Amino acid sequence: MLIGVPKEIYPGEARVAIIPSGIQALLDKGFSVVVQEGAGDGAHFGDEEYRACGASIAPSAESLYEQADIILKVRNPQEEELPLLKENSTLICLMDAWFNLPMVEKLAAQKVRSFALEFIPRTTRAQSMDVLSSMGAISGYRSVLTGAMALPQYFPMLMTAAGTIHPAKVFIIGAGVAGLMAISTARRLGAVVEAYDTRAEVREQVESLGAKFVEFDLETEEGNSSGYASEKSEEFYRKQREQMTTKISQADLVITTAAIPGKPSPRLITKDMLHYMKKGSVIVDLAAERGGNVEGTVANDKVYLDGVTIIGYTDHPGRVPVHASQLLTKNISTFLLNMADEGELSVNMEDDIVAATLVTEDGEVKHEGLSAQLA
Ligand code: NAD
């Protein structure tokens, strides 16, 4: 079968699903690979490198989609890409399916077999396919660098002849993959770091990275079988905001990462709370794509409210395109090769990874949760 790697067309997207060094593993399993001209440019991988690694180059998206049996992409297909997907082809990408239901319906109507990488279970066997962890870690890392650059002060403690500089205080809300990476990055830059999560089990991980785990007088949880937090009542969020006000008023940089899969981001900081923060302090809201953890966050922008800079960039992984694409290559090809048999796809619904990620096939929406939403 022929695997196609298109150039991403989402505005500003610099990542590519497969980098040249990942081609050989696909050829070894009996597949051929075609890459769209310029697909790797944003991540600094040229067409010549792809050719040298055994891929052919398609001059346009049209010719790529027409030839390929399997499309490997980073982002979900955009409006103009959907008609290019041919019947009975297979699509594997980060689909953002809960928030793109009309696209899911179109994929089914076009008889495309599609897999959503965000549904890969958080299990030991699936760890090397876990795109969300790879991208979450980059977001955590970049959130600290972005926040540090926006902060009008030093990060580390310094003792100079001109006086002592106190270290920046960083408060991280949500200690999942992104939050833990943010803790270690902020610590490496010399900040004093505190973190909070509704899942009490992360205390040990937070402390092992040298940060203080903050406790509030609120119920905690263990998270579901995938390790995810559950949605809370408005009363819970109200109490959480009340208790968090003191913490954020002491911080120079606040990083919010709180997410509930398939739901809008919980609102953790209101505009009223900003008033208690120090002038010149910074918030990086990693939940901006889903409405944000902070009232006033503008997705893909930086705003100033009540003396506080709020950064709502949603493309942190794309700002590290080389390593993001390298990690995606490993994740996506491991996912694909788990279903490969001598250059063909063998879709086994007994496999929990396959069953969890299959979205559409044979003209139907196969994912139970999504088809219930669409009913
Ligand atoms: P996520 O992006 O869904 O959420 C980020 C964090 O926000 C989570 O830690 C969540 O508990 C927290 N959160 C939600 N609501 C909150 C609130 N109101 N206040 C404070 N914090 C709140 O999660 P993620 O980072 O993708 O990962 C979640 C968990 O999945 C991990 O911590 C881990 O336990 C598990 N995981 C397991 C594997 C594996 O076993 N292979 C791999 C990756 C992750």
TrEMBL record:
Coiled coil: none annotated. It comes from the Bacteria. It holds the Pfam family AlaDh_PNT_C. Gene3D superfamilies: NAD(P)-binding Rossmann-like Domain. GO terms for cellular component: plasma membrane. SMART domains: AlaDh_PNT_C, AlaDh_PNT_N. GO terms for biological process: NADPH regeneration. Residues 148-312 form the Alanine dehydrogenase/pyridine nucleotide transhydrogenase NAD(H)-binding domain. CDD domains: Rubrum_tdh. Belongs to the AlaDH/PNT family. The transhydrogenation between NADH and NADP is coupled to respiration and ATP hydrolysis and functions as a proton pump across the membrane. This is proton-translocating NAD(P)(+) transhydrogenase. It comes from Thalassolituus maritimus. The lineage of its organism: Bacteria, Pseudomonadati, Pseudomonadota, Gammaproteobacteria, Oceanospirillales.
